[in-house]
Amino acid sequence: MSALSRDEVAHVAMLARIQLTDGELDRLAGQLDQIVGFVATVGEIAAADIPPMSHPLPLENVTRDDVVRPSLTPAEALAAAPKVQAERFAVPRILDED
């Protein structure tokens, strides 16, 4: 017998907006109970001297530094635009909101 009831699994499925059949609810109750057990085992194994991490491999920021470079003036950027309004590209309205 799993520690998670069929009703608890149905409640979680409803919160996740997932429709499950009766058979799926019964099967998932046991599977989710195993997953909760596995997570508890990992919690027991984790040592206090190991800091929490977000990724198992060291990551470095791979973005480039911001460097000011010459670019187009607003007039140059808008020169080929089919329609301009208040120094901006004018596009058709897609929403009725103001």
UniProtKB/TrEMBL annotation:
Molecular function, one GO term = transferase activity
SUPFAM superfamilies (UniProt xref): Glu-tRNAGln amidotransferase C subunit
Top-tier EC class:
ligase
Instruction: Relate the assembly described in the record.
Output: Heterotrimer of A, B and C subunits.
Q: Give the species this sequence originates from.
A: Flexivirga caeni
Q: Which reaction does it catalyse?
A: L-glutamyl-tRNA(Gln) + L-glutamine + ATP + H2O = L-glutaminyl-tRNA(Gln) + L-glutamate + ADP + phosphate + H(+); L-aspartyl-tRNA(Asn) + L-glutamine + ATP + H2O = L-asparaginyl-tRNA(Asn) + L-glutamate + ADP + phosphate + 2 H(+)
Q: What is this protein called?
A: Aspartyl/glutamyl-tRNA(Asn/Gln) amidotransferase subunit C
**What NCBIfam families does the entry give?**
gatC
| Pfam hit, one | GatC
